[in-house]
């Protein structure tokens, strides 16, 4: 039996790792419950929370019987995700962190995108909007168009960018060993999702849904405060890949530089000067030549943009900001992510039933 079975309506398991998540969990659960594709199993994995996370999830399960709540001793997000995947009954798994949000059409459109592959055997992903604590958009992912064999592009840049986006065949995730909890044990938690995506990309095609279907929440100060640990995690993930793919060494080194530079810029943007002070010597000592080249490239791009702006002013042509990319509405900074799907709120497919057991 292929995974795209049962009249092309396979059971999907959403896995929600949750640690002290009572402030944001309800919104996440609602975004999963409100999927237009309703043949879902929703697993909340309470990772040893000390607040009201377990009670909140259990109460929510009274209104949606597709929800099951699991508990474990605190072991980190990778172990929580692995616990949920091990207990999952679905042919596909779709992790979502307990503070992120899904667009109502996310799962339905991801499944549609996988139908191009025999038996639906592949991984689906989409773009994301960056949101703050209040669900307000302040940015979005770079809208790449990579599909099929995406291993090398993903090696150069983690364009998926978070753990709440992919739809993955459960059997293949298990074959790859799931998420590597050993990174946390080594004090280098952070790139477990990238490591799994790369392992899947070595043997599976990826399908893109060109739309911003994940609301990826950045809590204030979190990005830069974890920068050094994330870089350690990235280095550990990349080390064995350099050994296996020596011809890609330069690409991997470029990826490491870009990752370090990205965190440095974020530290400066967040005024986390202590973190920036830690990262500056690393950039200077390890990536001196790359910094020079990068600086020249940035100067050229800035000069080019200024030249275009001046030319438009001379010709009296208005500067137009893009409102759509590949047919998708571009997330507008300052608006709420939920405003993108207000007309769909509470709307499920005609055959849906939140109280269905979906056995």
Count of DSSP H/I helices: 13
Q: What is the count of structural domains?
A: 2
Low-confidence stretches: 346-353
CATH topology tier name of the largest domain: Spore Coat Polysaccharide Biosynthesis Protein SpsA, Chain A
InterPro entries: Glyco_trans_2-like (IPR001173), Glycosyltransf_2 (IPR050834), Nucleotide-diphossugar_trans (IPR029044)
Protein name: Probable glycosyltransferase protein
Pfam family, one: Glycos_transf_2
Domain Glycosyltransferase 2-like: 14-147
Write the layout of secondary structure elements.
Elements: E1 12-18, H1 25-33, E2 40-47, H2 53-61, E3 67-72, H3 77-87, E4 92-95, E5 101-102, H4 106-114, E6 123-131, E7 137-140, H5 151-156, E8 168-169, H6 170-175, H7 182-185, H8 192-201, E9 206-217, H9 222-225, H10 227-244, H11 249-269, H12 273-286, H13 288-315, E10 324-325, E11 328-329
Parallel strand pairs: 1-2, 1-4, 2-3, 6-9
Antiparallel strand pairs: 4-8, 5-9, 6-7, 10-11
Domain Glycosyltransferase 2-like: 14-147
GO molecular function, one term: glycosyltransferase activity
Protein name: Probable glycosyltransferase protein
Summarize the structure in short:
With 359 residues, this protein is an alpha/beta fold. The chain has 13 helices and 11 strands. It has helices at 25-33, 53-61, 77-87, 106-114, 151-156, 170-175, 182-185, 192-201, 222-225, 227-244, 249-269, 273-286, 288-315; strands spanning 12-18, 40-47, 67-72, 92-95, 101-102, 123-131, 137-140, 168-169, 206-217, 324-325, 328-329.
């Amino acid at each position: 039996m292929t995974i795209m079975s049962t009249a092309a309506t396979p059971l999907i398991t959403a896995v929600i790792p949750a640690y002290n998540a009572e402030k944001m969990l309800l919104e996440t659960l609602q975004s999963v419950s409100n999927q237009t594709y309703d043949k879902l199993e929703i697993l909340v994995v309470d990772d040893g929370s000390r607040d009201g996370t377990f009670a909140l999830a259990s109460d929510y399960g009274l209104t949606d019987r597709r929800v099951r709540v699991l508990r474990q001793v605190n072991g980190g997000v990778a172990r929580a995700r692995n616990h949920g995947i091990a207990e999952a009954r679905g042919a596909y798994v779709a992790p979502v962190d307990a503070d992120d949000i899904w667009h109502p059409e996310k799962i339905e459109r991801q499944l549609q995108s996988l139908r191009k592959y025999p038996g639906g055997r592949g991984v689906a992903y989409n773009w994301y909007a960056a949101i703050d604590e209040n669900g307000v958009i302040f940015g979005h992912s770079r809208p790449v168009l990579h599909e099929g064999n995406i291993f090398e592009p993903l090696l150069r840049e983690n364009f998926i960018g978070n753990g709440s986006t992919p739809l993955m065949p459960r059997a293949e995730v298990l074959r790859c060993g799931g998420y590597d909890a050993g990174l946390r044990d080594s004090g280098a938690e952070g790139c477990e999702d990238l490591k799994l995506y790369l392992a899947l990309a070595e043997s599976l095609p990826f399908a893109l849904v060109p739309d911003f279907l994940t609301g990826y929440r950045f809590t204030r100060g979190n990005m830069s405060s974890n920068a050094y640990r994330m870089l350690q995690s990235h280095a550990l993930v990349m080390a064995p890949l350099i050994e296996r793919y020596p011809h890609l060494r330069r690409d991997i080194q470029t990826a490491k530089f870009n990752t370090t530079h990205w965190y440095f810029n974020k530290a400066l943007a967040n005024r986390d000067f202590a973190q920036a002070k830690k990262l500056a010597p690393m950039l200077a000592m390890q990536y001196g030549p790359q910094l020079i080249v990068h600086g020249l490239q940035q100067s050229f791009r800035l000069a080019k943009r200024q030249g275009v702006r001046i030319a438009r002013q001379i010709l009296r042509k208005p500067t137009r900001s893009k409102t759509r990319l590949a047919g998708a509405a571009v997330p507008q900074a300052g608006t709420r992510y939920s405003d993108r799907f207000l007309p769909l709120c509470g709307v499920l497919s005609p055959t849906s039933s939140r109280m269905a057991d979906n056995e």
